[in-house]
Fold this sequence. Notes:
Residues 211-267 form the Sdz-33 F-box domain. By secondary structure, this protein is of the alpha/beta class. Among the domains are: 12-48; 51-158 and 167-180, no CATH class. It is built from 9 helices and 18 strands. The strands form 2 sheets. A 16-stranded mixed β-sheet has the order 4-5-6-3-2-1-7-8-9-10-11-12-18-17-16-13. Strands 14-15 form a two-stranded antiparallel ribbon. A hairpin with a 2-residue loop joins strand 2 (62-67) and strand 3. Helix 2 (24-33) runs antiparallel to helix 3 (35-43).
Amino acid sequence: MPHPFPLFSLPYLPLKQVLDNFGAHAILCLSLCSLRSKRIAVSYRGSSKNVKLQLHFGFKNCLSYMEGFHLYWLLSVENRSELLSVDRNLDTVKIGNFCNIPVETGKLGLSTYWEDCMVGITEIGDYAREVFNQDIYEVVIGEKKPDDVYERAAEYVTKSQKSIHSLFCDFKPEIDNDLDFILENFNYTERLALDVNPPPEYCPAKPPNFNVDHLYILFSFWIKQDHLLTMNCKYIALQDSTLSSKDLNVFLKHFMNGGCSQLKEFNVTVDESIEYEVALNDVEFVERERDVATVYVDEEEQHRTISGGYDTKRPNDNAKVTILNYSKCFLMFVWPDFAGNFY
Length: 343
């Protein structure tokens, strides 16, 4: 029988199907509305939670997430003193053990206001872990504000989840051991990205953990031959490197003998021109014609056209390796590529 009011005769949709179309930001907002809505958000399992959570410490204290290769902001932490000079009434929410936290829409998602920003960002980290039913994927370390931010961030990660998949650092060290402290006190398991320019004389106090899938070091002048030989990564990118052609040769032989066995791409930029007769010394190779092009599909599904350079094989498994002979960039690809192409 037709409904007497067709406008109100809506099709039934299971709650999960509705929440699948919410997205991560709406799921978080739903959780803040009431205890009941929070229970719904926490119990939901579906595509709106298929994200990688990031927690930012330092200059920006905020929560974001990665979906594919795109970044989206969720919550930011601001100092409550910023509200004193502005006469406005804000809605308040409960986050973790803290009630009556002022909240409003801001530039980085929802802005929340706290007496202590470090308390705020750690409470938000725990809250996000509860709502999204997953650990924080990546910690981002920014400028040293407040002075103990690195210590408190490391303490939070250790106590809350023991390790993180990814660590990204983007700051200017104030003292020599700032970078040492971070490398020694964060247990990162998959990815390390450093956009940190330490003093010219910097040398790590202890060997860093380079047993990760992805390693990116922007100011890598401090990376020496012995550091290279400890790397076991799929992807290595070193910029502003001081490695010599001899150092590259030592690493290449190390790889050919089974070291860094999971390597797919090795990318090193240097200040001085590379001597390829030195870098390839004692390595059997075939020079590629410039007009012969091959497409390599990388992890981000980008198609990289390769022409020229040298081909060689790793003896233990016959994996083909292509080395491009740029003047100041040593670029090496290992086949098969990420699409399974064998050359």
